[in-house]
Design a protein that fits this description.
Distance between the termini: 16 Å
Shape: globular
Number of helices: 7
Number of strands: 3
Helix content: 55-70%
Largest sheet: 3 strands, antiparallel
Strand content: 5-15%
Length: 201
């Protein structure tokens, strides 16, 4: 079980993590929360109905990591515009789609990251130097979503666009300042892969 997820009887997943691994994942999840930011008007609203109908931003975020986490719906690879008019239409569609979906997407990513933090805090309180993290089926899905977000965020900072970029990461010399971030990226990828396999069993 060390370093990879395994299925639990009755559903869910488990992984053995040491104290350093718990600390790294928790720190990354907290940074992700800070990057995503609070919901409209903060996380607590006096009027839940108003929050339900609150519109999100219509423009893509400036931060490249947030752009990767919240991409435009009608642009990107494979959907290049063939004319200025089509490009303008795609921007308009993307803007409208973003207004009505981004707040919910942000809320979902925040909730996933919070589940990661809370479950790590629970095992850290119980364990001595390390512990076996046990997740319910629902928590496993939320962990999977958050691991994906973390890898997208780190991959964006490392300029990872495709598989070829990932291959180059393996060949970075140890003295490269990006090496710790690369190691985290690859390690999270391994965790994500074994969690997917576990959930598919």
């Amino acid at each position: 079980m060390p370093g990879h997820f395994e299925p639990l009887p009755g559903g869910g997943a488990a992984v053995a993590l040491d104290e350093v691994e718990i600390s790294i994942i928790r720190s990354l999840a907290v940074q992700l929360l800070e990057l995503i930011g609070p919901g409209p008007g903060g996380d607590v609203s006096d009027d839940p109905l108003a929050e339900l109908f609150a519109e999100g931003p219509s423009e893509p975020p400036a931060d490249p990591v947030l752009k990767r986490l919240f991409p435009d719906a009608y642009s990107g690879p494979g959907v290049e515009a063939t004319s200025p008019e089509q490009a303008e239409q795609q921007r308009a569609y993307s803007s409208e789609f973003r207004r009505f979906t981004e707040n919910d997407l942000r809320a979902g990513k925040r909730e996933n990251a919070l589940v990661v933090i809370r479950s790590l805090d629970a095992v850290a309180a119980d364990g001595k130097g390390g512990a076996v993290l046990k997740l319910t089926p629902e928590e496993s899905k939320q962990w999977l979503g958050s691991l994906n977000d973390l890898r997208l965020a780190i991959g964006s900072r490392l300029d990872v666009v495709d598989e070829e970029d990932t291959d180059l990461l393996y060949r970075l010399p140890d003295e490269d300042p990006r090496k710790p971030m690369v190691m985290a990226y690859l390690w999270l990828g391994g965790l994500q892969e074994t969690l997917v396999e576990t959930l598919m069993n």
